């Protein structure tokens, strides 16, 4: 009886809506970790962009995903091994630049840090729904994911908020 | 190598032949009924859709691929008639004709039961594929009841099929598993969805995912929607598929699904809003949400 | 004192193994026990969803077994009860990634600092099942009073008996109205068919769907009648002799009273 009145005054969100939201996030996470080709493509593009500004250790770059309250975030750990001598080509900014603290490694005597390029552009683009190598139904194919080996030397933490794969959103 | 089926070889009269080859132009459709999650209604769906297709005059064979945990025979009420099973056929311990059990009620519905005391890993995928291909020469519909999970049993059930029906209930675990399964099916397939065990009164209260919620996530062509009904339990108890009960709403839903599969024009699936009679109205009077 | 290692299994899928594991575990933790719940359904994990910890998974069982992380790093401590932890399954792998001996070692390690380790077993009787029972010293077999479920439970009872694992039965989703009308097997019928000792009976309750939607085990909600049911099961597991509830079908007045619990 008390519960009846309590439910009147403090209903809370209906659990169907909660279920839907939780499912959306969980599937996003499932899809991301189940689609290594998406992760590979993201990593390649990301490293490509970063390498326009700084020299990076591609072999030890790592990409992971972290669950947060209402989103899944992509965390990229990219060792920076040097800086480029010349300015990189200026690409029109598609997203607001996020300043990132870059820990530059100690340079060898013959190298002088001539110019430090602009901060690495945070690629905060939402992840595309249809991944390269997707099946005809647009769903990424599932394969075993190979973990990248090794630890970074001087990692740069770039936190990217991936707000969601469009395919998973209702 | 599967022996070619030949009724005359076994001295079986033509009228009792389990299957006569289809006309040269017609080739059966092999459909696997799968879900990932167990207990959502794959076997019930296989039995009922099969029975409904047979009632439409189609020649149908049902394969129980749940080796070790067979249940399709029970749902059809044929458990006492099983002499041979799928592995016996694959291992050539009997002919196909000997293993196929004809339904009690329908002349054009047959069952190939699973083995009960063997393991799913005993099925050789290539042999399963060959068997399904062979059955497509003999039947218009080959429905394969897939076991729960995504292991060898699932892979064997999918092998040789051309199409999939994914059965899902409006519950988080089921939707998640269905999503996983869809990702594991061949990429060029367009699996269809059946939403089973919907409880409209819970959906209305917001306490259960709606069909739109489910399919907003899975995004598959919707083949059918079936409301939860205690009659299903009773039907399994009796071994009488509801598809053959003209008074059953669940049966009607399965018949509509069968009609759609058979290529008939069928209106989009709907489920009537909750109308549980006197007590729910009484409940509404006392402030409960109807 | 090493904790008890109990596998929760069924054969048939969808009868409530994961729900049972989550709720019995929660009920035990509520009673102050140190409980670890292990999801062994590699590839189709759901224990995390039922407990509402899906967003907090960092490492999983397979990564523990492959030595890519420490066991304690993979354990997720429940926010509601300090003494309840969950070891999630991997979602991206297949069941063959975990071997029987490997899981048995993990379970044994967990049992060193827990009172109860409950192992959520996948459906079926294949590799996943064999692996899950390899780590267990006792079993809870979950079934519903339906033909298919009982048939599959029977196979599982056989396999557990062969493996010399003592077992007790939980009969889930009982519908007293259907038992009364003869449309469903009674508790006694089920126990007789399976020749198994009864641990508990759980009535069918729509509220479970709602609580699973939220990721909040119903055992933790005192206002829900199933909380008392799971509490009794927890007490029986601990050795207490608790009488079984005879769930009577609701008569007119019973239904009238339940109307007040709407919402």
Describe the structure.
The complex is a heterotrimer of chains A (about 170), B (about 290) and C (about 260). Chain A has 3 helices and 4 strands, in the order αααββββ. By secondary structure, chain A is α+β, with helices and mostly antiparallel strands. In chain A, strands 1, 2, 3 and 4 form a 4-stranded antiparallel β-sheet that branches. The longest helix of chain A has 20 residues, at about 15-35. Chain C has a single domain, classed as 3-Layer(aba) Sandwich (Rossmann fold), CATH 3.40.50.300. In chain C, about 40% of the residues lie in helices and about 15% in strands. In chain C, strands 3-4-2-5-1-6-7-8 form an 8-stranded mixed β-sheet, sandwiched between helices. Chains in contact: A-B, A-C, B-C. At the A-C interface, α1 and α2 of A face α10 of C.
Defining key terms:
heterotrimer, A: 170 residues, alpha+beta, 26% helix, elongated, C: 263 residues, alpha/beta, Rossmann fold, eight-stranded mixed β-sheet, 16% strand
Show the helix and strand layout.
The complex is a heterotrimer of chains A (170), B (290) and C (263).
Chain A: H1 2-9, H2 15-34, H3 36-51, E1 54-56, E2 62-67, E3 72-83, E4 155-162
Antiparallel strand pairs in A: 1-3, 2-3, 3-4
Chain B: E1 29-34, H1 42-55, E2 60-64, H2 72-76, H3 86-90, H4 96-99, E3 101-102, E4 109-112, H5 125-138, E5 141-145, H6 152-158, E6 163-168, H7 172-184, E7 192-198, H8 200-204, H9 211-218, E8 222-227, H10 231-238, H11 249-261, H12 278-285
Helix pairs in contact in B: 1-11
Chain C: E1 4-9, H1 17-30, E2 35-39, H2 47-51, H3 61-65, H4 71-74, E3 76-77, E4 84-87, H5 100-111, E5 116-120, H6 127-134, E6 138-143, H7 147-162, E7 167-174, H8 176-180, H9 187-194, E8 197-203, H10 207-214, H11 225-237, H12 252-259
Parallel strand pairs in C: 1-5, 1-6, 2-4, 2-5, 6-7, 7-8
Antiparallel strand pairs in C: 3-4
Helix pairs in contact in C: 1-11, 5-6
The CATH homologous superfamily of chain B corresponds to P-loop containing nucleotide triphosphate hydrolases
Second-tier CATH architecture of chain B: 3-Layer(aba) Sandwich
> Which sequence of strands runs across the widest sheet of chain C?
3-4-2-5-1-6-7-8
Helix content of chain C: 40-55%
Strand count, sense and barrel status of the largest sheet of chain B are: 8 strands, mixed
């Amino acid at each position: 009886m008390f519960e009846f009145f309590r439910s009147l005054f403090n209903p809370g969100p209906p659990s169907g809506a909660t279920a839907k939201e939780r499912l959306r996030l969980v599937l996003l996470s499932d899809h991301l970790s189940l689609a290594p080709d998406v992760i590979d493509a993201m990593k390649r593009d990301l490293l490509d962009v970063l390498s326009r500004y700084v020299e990076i250790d591609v072999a030890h770059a790592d990409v992971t995903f972290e669950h947060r309250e209402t989103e899944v975030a992509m965390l990229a750990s990219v060792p920076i091994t040097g800086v480029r001598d010349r300015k990189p080509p200026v690409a029109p900014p598609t997203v607001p630049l996020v300043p990132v603290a870059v820990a530059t490694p100690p340079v060898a005597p013959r190298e002088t840090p001539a110019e430090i390029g602009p901060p690495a552009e945070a690629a905060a683009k939402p992840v595309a729904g249809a991944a390269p190598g997707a099946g005809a139904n647009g769903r990424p194919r599932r394969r075993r994911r190979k973990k990248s080996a090794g630890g970074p030397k001087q990692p740069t933490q770039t936190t990217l908020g991936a707000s969601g794969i469009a395919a998973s959103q209702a | 190598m599967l022996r070619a089926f030949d009724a005359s070889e076994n001295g079986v009269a033509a009228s009792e032949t389990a299957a006569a080859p289809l006309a040269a132009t017609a080739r059966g459709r092999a459909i696997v009924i799968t879900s990932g999650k167990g207990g959502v209604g794959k076997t019930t769906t296989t039995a009922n859709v099969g029975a409904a297709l047979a009632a439409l005059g189609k020649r149908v064979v049902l394969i129980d691929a749940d080796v070790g945990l067979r249940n399709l025979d029970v749902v059809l009420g044929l458990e006492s008639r099983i002499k041979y099973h799928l592995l016996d056929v694959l291992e050539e311990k009997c002919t196909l004709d000997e293993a196929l059990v004809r339904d009690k009620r329908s002349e054009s519905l047959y069952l190939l039961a699973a083995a009960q005391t063997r393991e799913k890993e005993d099925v050789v995928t290539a042999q399963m594929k060959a068997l399904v291909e062979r059955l497509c020469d003999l039947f218009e519909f080959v429905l394969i009841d897939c076991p729960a999970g995504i292991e060898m049993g699932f892979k064997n059930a999918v092998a040789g099929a051309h199409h999939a029906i994914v059965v899902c209930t409006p519950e988080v675990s089921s939707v998640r598993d269905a999503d996983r399964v869809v990702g594991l099916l061949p990429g060029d397939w367009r699996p269809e969805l059946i939403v089973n065990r919907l409880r409209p009164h819970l959906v209305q209260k917001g306490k259960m995912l709606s069909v739109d919620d489910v399919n907003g996530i899975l995004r598959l062509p919707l083949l059918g929607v079936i409301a939860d009904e205690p009659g299903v339990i009773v039907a399994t108890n009796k071994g009488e598929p509801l598809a053959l009960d003209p008074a059953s709403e669940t049966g009607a839903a399965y018949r509509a699904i069968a009609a759609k599969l058979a290529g008939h024009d069928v209106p989009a699936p709907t489920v009537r809003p909750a109308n549980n009679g006197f007590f729910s109205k009484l409940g509404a009077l006392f402030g409960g949400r109807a | 004192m090493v904790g008890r290692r109990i596998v929760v299994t069924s054969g048939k899928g969808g009868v409530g193994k994961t729900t049972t594991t989550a709720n019995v575990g929660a009920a035990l933790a509520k009673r102050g026990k140190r409980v670890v719940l292990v999801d062994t359904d590699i590839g189709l994990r759901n224990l995390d969803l039922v407990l509402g910890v899906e967003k907090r998974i960092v490492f999983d069982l397979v990564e523990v077994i492959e030595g890519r992380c420490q066991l304690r790093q993979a354990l997720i401590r429940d926010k509601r009860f300090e003494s309840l932890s969950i070891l999630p399954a991997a979602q991206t792998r297949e069941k063959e990634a975990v071997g029987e001996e490997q899981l048995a070692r993990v379970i044994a390690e967990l049992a060193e600092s827990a009172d109860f380790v409950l192992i959520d077993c996948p459906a079926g009787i294949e590799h996943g099942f064999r692996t899950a029972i390899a780590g267990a010293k006792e079993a809870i077999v979950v079934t519903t009073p339906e033909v298919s479920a009982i048939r599959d439970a029977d196979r599982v009872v056989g396999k557990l008996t062969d493996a010399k694992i003592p077992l007790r039965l939980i009969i889930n989703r009982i519908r007293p109205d259907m038992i009364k009308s003869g449309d469903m097997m009674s508790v006694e019928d089920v126990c007789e068919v399976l020749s198994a000792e009864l641990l508990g009976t759980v009535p069918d309750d729509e509220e479970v769907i709602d609580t699973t939607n939220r990721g909040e085990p119903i055992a933790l909600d005192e206002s829900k009648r199933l909380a008392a049911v799971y509490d009794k099961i927890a007490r029986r597991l601990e050795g207490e002799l608790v009488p079984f509830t005879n769930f009577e079908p609701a008569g007119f007045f019973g239904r009238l009273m339940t109307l007040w619990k709407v919402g």
